[in-house]
Design a protein that fits this description.
Number of domains: 2
Radius of gyration: 29 Å
CATH architecture of the largest domain: 2-Layer Sandwich
CATH superfamily of the largest domain: Bira Bifunctional Protein, Domain 2
Number of helices: 15
Largest sheet: 8 strands, mixed
CATH topology of the largest domain: BirA Bifunctional Protein, domain 2
Shape: elongated
Strand content: 25-35%
CATH class of the largest domain: Alpha Beta
Number of strands: 18
Strand order of the largest sheet: 6-10-11-18-17-16-15-14
């Protein structure tokens, strides 16, 4: 069997042959009159009228029989506009190159220059073969793009997961389910945007480069701005503090869908570069937020997947049922037998060791200790559920509970044993916010790199007054959970370490 390099040399010779004949191997235009999907849809009408059509696409198979060569052509003309049930279908048509139609010279030219993987333009008429195969019989043809590398065999190539992700374009080309995932990913974000816009939200864009990171607890990426000669951070939230400044500015409802960056660990749920949506709505609180988010999730999920019932991480999850509300401290007590509202840091550490929970000891504090306990507990919850009543020290940007000032008005969406969205009644008391930022700064000084930075500009904005506001954010982790795949596999082009 010939090696890849040997096959490439053969194709390069064919390319040079085309060039010597003065033919373009990579022309900029095509005279295509219809997509393959359109040709198949109107096949009966076109074939009866003997109307000439021009189709174009990639050659996916070649079969020669004497003076005739059959080829499968596909142009990927199926997309968002076809029903969900047919999205995995590969739209293709058979091409027929015949010596008695094109002459010996024309036929041999095709045989000697065209390979599987090439893009071809065929002008011809639509016919049905004796076997009933819908076919375009060529009256003329043209090279649109010469492929220099052979495509992998459908059933034997790109079996390795890393190789599939590295050559994602081939993975999509040969695996309809991956192509369907790309389409669903677009539908997921588009349907979320559609829901928010219909509910009176304005889409905005906020800075990706920041002097101070804010809006989340995460380790940021650092970059350098040459023109200003200063170090900056890539944002770790989708403009949370910026969007809240828009609440100060007088906007009622705003949202952003964009990329965020966190320089942390990589696993099935976590990535360093991913898409997130955040919205902020004035004159609403977290209780309104829970109702609104539940409606939004149902809309997005139904629109994208045509169902509300899923198998996620081993759980049967039904989004149509009543979403349960869980108390943070009670849930942790249920699974760990410890009361986080009364236990000391040493007592929690002792329980973590007893439960066999590994944790990073650098910058360790009560917030990290309780968070590790919670991560142990959440694995037991399939959801959909709302987690509420989190201690103040775990959420520096949320408003305190009016019933219990030790807690905040926060909710998290729990699905498949993990968090898939978080929102709260936004803290709009500038004095309280300043004090909480100060506490976060102390934690950073003690080594907690996930603690938030003190943002003086944001506190100053709050001093001008911000109305009661509900904010919420959800990342593409939700999409990966609905697909029941690792987050990395549901990105179109995940970051890959160079060979």
């Amino acid at each position: 069997m010939a090696t890849i390099d040997e096959l490439k040399k053969i194709r390069l010779k064919k390319l040079k042959s085309l060039q010597k004949l003065g033919l373009l191997a990579y022309p900029a235009t095509t005279k295509r009159t219809h997509s393959i999907a359109e040709a198949l849809k109107n096949f009966s009408k076109f074939s009866k009228s003997k109307k000439e059509v021009v189709l174009a696409g990639r050659i996916m198979a070649l079969r020669s029989h004497g003076g005739a060569t059959f080829l499968d052509i596909q142009d990927n003309s199926n997309s968002l506009d076809i029903p969900d049930a047919r999205r995995r279908e590969v739209i293709k048509i058979q091409g027929l190159i015949k010596e008695d139609k094109l002459g010996e010279k024309g036929y041999k030219f095709f045989i000697n220059h065209f390979d599987i993987g090439d893009f071809v333009e065929i002008k011809g008429i639509l016919i049905k073969t004796k076997r009933g195969e819908q076919t375009i019989e060529a009256l003329d043809y043209k090279m649109l793009a010469k492929s220099l590398l052979p495509l992998p065999e459908k059933w034997h190539g790109l079996q390795d997961v890393e190789e599939r992700l590295r050559k994602r374009y081939l993975d999509i080309l040969f695996n309809p389910e991956v192509k369907e995932m790309v389409v669903k990913r677009a539908m997921f974000w588009n349907s979320m945007r559609e829901f928010l816009v219909k509910n009176g939200f304005l889409e905005v864009e906020t800075p990706v480069l920041e002097v101070t990171t804010g809006g989340a607890e995460a380790k940021p990426f650092i970059t350098h701005h040459n023109a200003l000669d200063m170090d900056l951070y890539l944002r770790i939230s989708c403009g949370e503090l910026w969007q809240k400044k828009l609440m100060v500015a007088g906007f009622k409802n705003v949202f952003e869908i964009g990329r965020i960056f966190r320089n942390e660990g990589m696993d099935a749920e976590h990535l360093q570069d991913y898409t997130q949506m955040e919205f902020y709505s004035a004159y609403h609180n977290y209780e309104w937020g829970m109702d609104f988010v539940e409606r939004m999730y149902k809309h997005v999920i139904k629109k994208t997947f045509s169902t509300l019932k899923f198998k996620i991480r081993g759980f049967n999850v039904d989004f149509s049922k009543k979403w349960e509300k869980l108390d943070f401290a009670s849930t942790i007590s249920k699974y760990t037998k410890i009361n986080i509202m009364e236990a000391s840091l040493p007592e929690i550490e002792k329980q973590l060791k007893k439960l066999g929970i590994e944790y990073d000891k650098k910058g360790f504090n009560i917030t990290r200790a309780v968070d590790n306990l919670w991560k142990y507990c959440r694995k037991n919850i399939g959801g959909p559920s709302f987690l509420t009543n989190v201690p103040v020290y775990m959420e520096p940007l949320a408003k305190r509970s009016e019933k219990n000032p030790k807690l905040v008005q926060r909710f998290q969406v729990i699905i498949g044993g993990s968090e898939n969205g978080k929102g709260f009644s936004e803290l709009n008391d500038p004095i309280d916010q300043s004090e909480r930022f100060a506490e976060q700064r102390k934690l950073r000084e003690k080594g907690d790199q996930q603690a938030q930075m003190f943002d003086k500009d944001f506190v100053e904005a709050l001093e001008y007054g911000m109305p009661p506001t509900c904010g919420f954010g959800v990342s593409e982790r939700l999409f990966s959970f609905l697909m029941d795949k690792p987050a990395r596999e549901t990105q179109i082009f995940p970051l890959m370490k160079p060979r």
